[in-house]
Task: inverse folding
C-alpha cells in the first residue's frame, strides 16, 4: 500500500463510508476502513476488494485507521455518535485534514432541517478538535447509493477555514469523478448540512431511487 496515497474512512463499514471508499478506490487511492469492531472493518474491506479491481483496502479499528492515514481522514458516522467518535479518533488526527460528511439529522424527522446550536456538525467538530486539525466539510449532498454505482452525477460543496485544505479535498472529489466547489468558510457547512434534509424530502416526494443531488450552474 502506498502510505502517502492512503485515505482513512471512519465508519467506513457503513453506507456512506462504503460509498466514498468505492469512489476513492476506483480513483486509485488506497483506503483504510475504520470501525469500532476490527472484524467488521476487515469484512467491509474484503467486500470492497471483491467489488473493485486492484483495490488496495484494509480494515482497522477507528483510531488505528485515523493514525494510518498520513494526511486525510474522512468521518462518516451518524450525528448522534459524532462527538463520541471524534473523541475516540482525536489522538490520530494531529496535523491532518478531517473531512466531515456528517449531517446533523435527528430521527425520525430527517426531512426537516434541525441544525445544532453551534450552527453545524462540522463547526462542532472543529471546535472540539482545535487548531491542530483542519476540518473540511464535504459530501453531505451526495448519496451513498450514487457513490457506489459510479461517478455521481451531482456536485460537492466543500467548506473549510483553511484554503489549502479545501483545495486538497476538492482535488480528491474531482479524482473520484465529482465536480466540487469552494463553498467558503466552515460556517457555510450549515447550508450543505441543511440541504441534505431538503434532498431527503425531495427523495420522498418524487421517488428518487439513487437519491437526489445538486448541480451548481455558472453562467
Ligand atoms: N447514507 C447517505 O447517503 C449519506 C449521504 C450524505 C451524508 N451522510 C452522512 O454520513 C454519515 C453516515 O451515514 P451512513 O448512512 O453511512 O450511516 P450508517 O451506515 O448508519 O453508519 C455508519 C457507521 O457509523 C458507525 N456507528 C453507528 N452507530 C455508532 C455508535 N453508536 N457509535 C459509534 N459509531 C457508530 C458504524 O460503524 P461501526 O459499527 O463499524 O463502528 C456504522 O457503520 C451520517 O452523518 C450521514 O448523515 C450519509
Result:
Amino acid at each position: 500500500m502506498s502510505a502517502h496515497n492512503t485515505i482513512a474512512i471512519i465508519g467506513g463499514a457503513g453506507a456512506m463510508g462504503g460509498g466514498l471508499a468505492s469512489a476513492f478506490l476506483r480513483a486509485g487511492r488506497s483506503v483504510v476502513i475504520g470501525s469500532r469492531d476490527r472484524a467488521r472493518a476487515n469484512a467491509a474491506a474484503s467486500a470492497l476488494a471483491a467489488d473493485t479491481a486492484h483495490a488496495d483496502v484494509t480494515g482497522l479499528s477507528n483510531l488505528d485507521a485515523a493514525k494510518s492515514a498520513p494526511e486525510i481522514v474522512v468521518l462518516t458516522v451518524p450525528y448522534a455518535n459524532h462527538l463520541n467518535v471524534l473523541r475516540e479518533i482525536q489522538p490520530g488526527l494531529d496535523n491532518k485534514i478531517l473531512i466531515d460528511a456528517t449531517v446533523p439529522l435527528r430521527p425520525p424527522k430527517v426531512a426537516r432541517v434541525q441544525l445544532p446550536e453551534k450552527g453545524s456538525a462540522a463547526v462542532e467538530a472543529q471546535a472540539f478538535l482545535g487548531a491542530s486539525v483542519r476540518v473540511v466539510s464535504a459530501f453531505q449532498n451526495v448519496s451513498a447509493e450514487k457513490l457506489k454505482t459510479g461517478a455521481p452525477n451531482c456536485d460537492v460543496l466543500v467548506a473549510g477555514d483553511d484554503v489549502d485544505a479545501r483545495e486538497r479535498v476538492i482535488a480528491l472529489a474531482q479524482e473520484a469523478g465529482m465536480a466540487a466547489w469552494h463553498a467558503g468558510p466552515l460556517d457555510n457547512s450549515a447550508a450543505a448540512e441543511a440541504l441534505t434534509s431538503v434532498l431527503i424530502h425531495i427523495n420522498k416526494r418524487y421517488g428518487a431511487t439513487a437519491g437526489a443531488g445538486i448541480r451548481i450552474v455558472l453562467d
Residues 11, 13-17, 35-37, 40, 76-79, 81, 84-85, 101-103, 105, 139-140, 143-144 surround NAP (CB under 6 Å). The chain has a mean pLDDT of 96. The beta strands are 6-10, 30-35, 57-61, 72-75, 97-100, 134-137, 155-160, 179-182. The helical segments are 15-26, 38-51, 62-68, 82-89, 121-129, 144-149, 163-175, 189-206.
